[in-house]
Amino acid sequence: MKLKIGDLTNIRTGKLDANASSEDGQYPFFTCSKDPLKISTYTYDCECVLVAGNGDLNVKYYKGKFDAYQRTYIIEDNGSGRLYMPYLYYFMTRYVEQLRKQAIGGVIKYIKLGNLTNAEMELPTIEEQKIIVNIMEKAKHILDMKNQNIHNLNQLIQSRFVEMFGDPIINNRGWRESTIGEDCFVTKLAGFEYSKYIKYDNVGDVVMVKAQNVKNGTLNRKDLSFISNEVSDALPRSQLLPGDVVMTYVGANIGDVALIDDKYKYHLAPNVAKIRVDDKVYNSVYFMYMLMFLNSYIVKNSADTAKAALGMERIRKLKVFIPTYDLQNQFATFVHQVNKSKFVIHEFLYCATHNTKSIIKPRPNTKESGQTRGRETTCRRILTF
Predict the structure, then answer these.
(1) Residue 171 to residues 176, 233, 284, 324: CA-CA distances in angstroms?
(2) What does pLDDT average to in each consecutive run of 10 residues of the chain (385 residues)?
(3) Residue 64 belongs to a domain with what CATH number?
(4) Domain residues for 21?
(5) Cα gap 210→225, rounded to integer Å
């Protein structure tokens, strides 16, 4: 049976400004950020699901005393006895993807009350809802452990980098110093090229590497956009090759980097710069990790934080150091071995997430690509909930 959330709940918004928080407060203060702040007083004392009304549109569950920002939606049971609130929480963690598509506005996207009240979901009995929540909580515990494993492996790579090369900011080992512009080719997609040629599609021959696809040394392949080979061929300066390093130069994740692999054909989107290293000087894997570990320094010392921008000349003038090529290769080999372990965990996470999504579905299945169907077959072999 499908019902609208508005028929099962009462929904209101918080009343406070974001600056109402207090560092020494004893109650949670929910804003549109993923992590709650603190506040000294509370307005609400209930069990609820909270949905950020703008920005990232994340979802939280809470039971107890709290307060909320004026753009945070507070969803409570209306007392009908048909809804188990943790079940609604897990449904909303899936449905938030639809809310992001429905969001409107310019720089900061936002949703309206109707986006929540009109959302439909399957509503089994209370007993069945509790069984489903129990499964989801066990799955979440497993996923949290696996994500911690990935975090530990990333820390291992960083520790190995410092062990082999020293501090990337102060160069305490005395390696030969240079600038990115001296030994690398740096470019970005020109505005006229973007407006004249680029029209994104959901399928295509060439993946557009956008700022949201570049995160913590990894190419995030969620929500990919594509162009045709013909369009890519018309823009040779912006084509990407395996071994190229990409860096975001504007936006929230300014200075993030990733390494281009040979899984797809890639092309540079606006807001991302291409850095092609001199392979006689740098191993691309070493170079990418050096920039990743320098991220906070780069943003603090090289970026125009008022505009959240990092110009091309600033990127070219960034100081880097050059260890021996043999040592760079040893580090790249170590990273490759660690990444094998990370790949196995990522596949497990994908399969576990896919299986839990099938438990609470916010909408009917849509037509999926052959690649997605292939991964589903692999999931059935690896994991079944």
Answers:
(1) 9, 41, 19, 14
(2) 93 93 94 93 97 91 96 95 95 92 85 95 94 90 88 94 92 92 77 59 86 87 84 84 90 86 87 90 95 83 65 83 96 95 82 66 46 42 36
(3) 3.90.220.20
(4) 2-123
(5) 8
Q: Looking at the structure, tell me whether residues 93 and 198 fall in a common domain.
A: no
Q: Specify whether the CB–CB gap between 82 and 27 falls below 8 A.
A: no
If you search the block for the tokens 């059935």, which residue do you land on? Answer: 380
Q: Which two tokens stand for residue 282?
A: 């740098």
* φ, ψ at 263 (rounded to 5°): -70, -35
DSSP state of 277: E
How far apart are the C-alpha atoms of 111 and 126, rounded to whole Å?
29
Q: How far apart are CA 370 and CA 367, in angstroms?
A: 10
Q: How many domains does the chain have?
A: 3
Please choose, from the candidates 117, 88, 86, 83, the residue with its C-alpha nearest in 3D space to the C-alpha of residue 102: 117
Neighbours of 172 (CB within 10 A): 11
What are the DSSP calls for 158-223, one per residue?
HHHHHHHH--TTT-TT-PEEEEHHHHEEEEE--HHHHHHH---BSS-SEEEE-GGGEETTEE--SS
**pTM for this structure?**
0.69
pLDDT in the model for residue 196: 57
> Could you report the per-residue pLDDT of 262-276, keeping only the tens digit for each?
888 998 887 888 999
- Whether 289 and 358 map to the same domain: the answer is no
Average pLDDT, the chain: 85
Q: Which residue is listed with tokens 């020109």?
A: 190
> Helix, strand, or coil here: 267?
strand
Taking alpha carbons only, the member of 151, 150, 157 closest to residue 332 is: 157
